[in-house]
Amino acid sequence: MACPSRLACAFFLFFVTLSASAQVQKLGEVSFAVPEGWKYEYNPGDDHADMVTGVSGNYCIVALTVPIKSTGNVEQDFAIAWRYIVERNPQASVPSSYEIRGLPGYSGRVGSSTLDNRTKNAFLYLLETGKSFIPVTILTPNRTVYDNYEGTVQQVVSSVRLAPLQALPMKKNITLADLVGDWKHGGADVITYVNSTTGNYAGTSTAYVGEFYTIAADGSYAYNLQAMSDGHVVREKSSGQVEFTSEFIVFHEKPSNKLKRYRFISYQHGLSGASLLTVLGERNEPTSSNISMYSDKFVRDPAKPDGQKK
Q1: What is the CATH number of the domain that holds 89?
Q2: Contact 294, 310 (CB under 8 A)
């Protein structure tokens, strides 16, 4: 069968033959995590591997390609990868690409476009590893379906490693041992106001919030909140015990017995050795849109070598 693009071939294979998945797979020097329950397809000698899930009308295909030599210009690399993998028609334009943000894996670019008369939606993540780049391409029937799978897709993208680094499997859940250490989460906003009549500068509003958890091996924790809004500073401290239920990670404050519950979303490892824990407050159901808008991302810095000060 002649295929106009690598993704068209992947779409065909999706409905033909698939093998059972394993948690971590390798494609030459590249290793990556395969989501639990997804099907994995690789034919020996191919320069790509596919991960698929769903059914017709609600499918998601993630295609990973072996590293390609970089030109030294990431935007040019993106155009090369798009033409080679996604859309080979020279009359079709290459979409704009944007810097990858908020993921703990390789930096690079991401861009998307519709294909085949808007019957498919394609995303291309370009992971820059130095002298080469690794393309990861996602195919869904439309943008809404992509949004539903986005969290899992980003975990796959973040897991990709080039040897000698090795990918780690995705975590379906976590234990207390995974949480031991110092975690931080926060953000800041600076808003500049302009007089609507004169157009002159009318002031600035600054807001900041930072949350810090220190969790010990026995499950005890110390919590510290630091926040500021319009010059008003708030500081809070508390402590208690970390508990687990079938649905939540629970921070049980003592002696007040206040409870703060989080749903576990993901636990990822960065290139530096840092850990990224994504959780969602109990008030929000774990839908794709809620995770995108309301989840909290806590970071734990990599452990220091023995004898080195923190």
Answers
A1: 2.60.120.1690
A2: no
8 A C-beta contact, residue 159 and residue 267 = no
pTM above 0.85?
A: no
Domain shared by 143 and 190, yes or no:
no
Phi and psi at residue 156, to the nearest 5°: -60, -50
- What is the chain's length? 310
Distance CA 126, CA 83 (A): 13
Structural domain contains residue 1 = no
> Are 119 and 208 within one domain?
no
List pLDDT tens digits, range 212-244: 999 999 999 999 999 887 778 889 999 999 999
Range of the domain at 68: 6-162
Element (H, E) at 146: helix 143-159
- Categorise residue 85: left if φ over 0, alpha if ψ from -120 to 50, beta otherwise: alpha
Residues 264 and 173 sit within 8 Å (Cβ to Cβ): yes
pLDDT tens by residue, 115-152: 888 889 999 999 999 999 999 999 999 999 999 999 99
